[in-house]
Specification:
With 167 residues, the chain is mainly α. It folds into 2 domains: 29-104; 106-167. The protein is built from 4 helices and no strands. The chain has helices at 6-20, 25-104, 114-132, 134-166. α3 (114-132) packs antiparallel against α4. It starts with 5 loop residues before the first helix and ends with a helix.
């Protein structure tokens, strides 16, 4: 422990025997052993405390790392939330615009067959024109019919929505 050899320990024992005396020597050796034990335990406690502090520092560093990771993930989620909210607002604006635009049109009576009469007239006109020029008129007729059907469907859809909203 203190790098002492046998002769050095023997010399210290002889000096202790002379100064302390044979009566008090065992008691003194016990108290010295207790004191040395207490000093050893104190050093071990200090060493253990230092090791715990080092572990606590490592845990603090690790906790800080995880905290930064969580904050980064939270920021990513906030950005995603902002994008989602922006898209939701855009969709709401579009829905409001569509609702506003559909209110401009007056609904027609669903049982109104005048549209079909208009189609019949258009068909008659196309038949007359087809006789004059066969090929280009067929294409024009098909395109016009598709447009008319689309317009009719749109008008009936608007009328249906208005009736549904009134009811």
């Amino acid at each position: 422990m203190f790098d002492m050899g046998f002769t050095e320990i023997l010399l210290i024992a002889i000096i202790a025997l002379v100064f302390i005396g044979p009566d008090k020597l065992p008691e003194t050796l016990r108290s010295i052993a207790k004191t040395i034990g207490k000093i050893k335990r104190s050093f071990e406690d200090a060493k253990e405390t230092i090791n715990k502090e080092l572990q606590i520092e490592e845990l603090k560093k690790e906790a800080l790392y995880y905290k930064q990771e969580l904050e980064s993930a939270q920021n990513d989620l906030k950005a995603f939330k902002n994008v989602a909210q922006q898209q939701l607002h855009e969709l709401n604006d579009e829905v409001r615009q569509i609702a506003h635009d559909t209110q401009k049109f007056e609904p027609k009576d669903i049982n109104d067959d005048s549209i079909f009469d208009e189609f019949d007239e258009i068909d008659k006109e196309f038949e007359k024109l087809e006789k004059q020029e066969e090929t280009p008129l067929k294409e024009a007729k098909e395109e016009n019919e598709e447009k008319q059907v689309k317009n009719l469907q749109d008008e009936k859809l608007v009328a249906f929505k208005n009736i549904k909203s009134e009811g």
